[in-house]
Amino acid sequence: QVQLKESGPGLVQPSQTLSLTCTVSGLSLTSNSVSWIRQPPGKGLEWMGVIWSNGGTDYNSAIKSRLRIGRDTSKSQVFLKMNSLQTEDTAIYFCARNYYSDYWGQGVMVTVSS
Amino acid sequence: DVVLTQTPSTSSATIGQSVSISCRSSQSLLDSAGNTYLYWYLQRPGQSPQLLIYLVSSLESGVPNRFSGSGSGTDFTLKISGVEAEDLGVYYCMQATHVPYTFGTGTKLELK
């Protein structure tokens, strides 16, 4: 059974770095890509980036300079790190299997506030 | 970046009514290999999105066949033939032909 679960701090201060983890089960990171998508409160979905099965990455051009996606295949974990956070980065952050997101995690709410 | 514009932004329907949602792309989504990477999702209130349709018109496993997708190039449509109460929520299209991938603006389906 494919499962993805996001974890991380619920509150981050402005200008700080956000670190999130997506722990997967029922799938191999060397055979599947994993995407990150976020959704500000009451707004639409924003594609953030993807880590491919070979470890390569692609990012949203609007946040590319602040974003890094990595993984630890031995722990079945994918990581998201985004620096210089601002209030507009407040959102629910989702990870999903594959570049076309056929399985989604439940999401984690991140609030950027002092 | 590719912009996906969905219309209408809100659709009101009665149970059993058929509805269509349009997704128009600022660029052709047909790639050089002849593939079109256009997907449809439903996000019910308080839930994560769910994949409904992949590659324009293929129904994801477990999705009722009242959902169908069509289109080509820059114009795509999701049709629900006979809305049921569980279909209410926000529908998004997404393109994965051009990096960065992008989502549509969303269409909220509500009960009339």
Range of strand content of chain A:
over 45%
Q: Determine the mean pLDDT of chain A.
A: 97
- The number of E-state strands of chain B comes to 11
- Computed Rg of chain B: 13 Å
Taking all Cα atoms into account, the compactness measure Rg of chain A is 13 Å
Main beta sheet strand tally, sense and closure of chain A: 7 strands, mixed
What gross morphology of chain B would you assign? globular
Largest interface: A-B, 22 and 23 residues
Helical content of chain A (DSSP H or I, runs of 4+): under 10%
Uncertain residue segments of chain A: none
Unreliable parts of chain B: none
Helix content of chain B: under 10%
Shape assignment of chain A: globular
Task: Provide the succession of SSEs of chain A.
Answer: EEEEEEEEEEE
How many alpha or pi helices of chain B?
Answer: 0
What's the overall average pLDDT of chain B, rounded?
97
Gap from first CA to last CA of chain B: 35 Å
Which structural category fits the helices and strands of chain A?
Answer: mainly beta
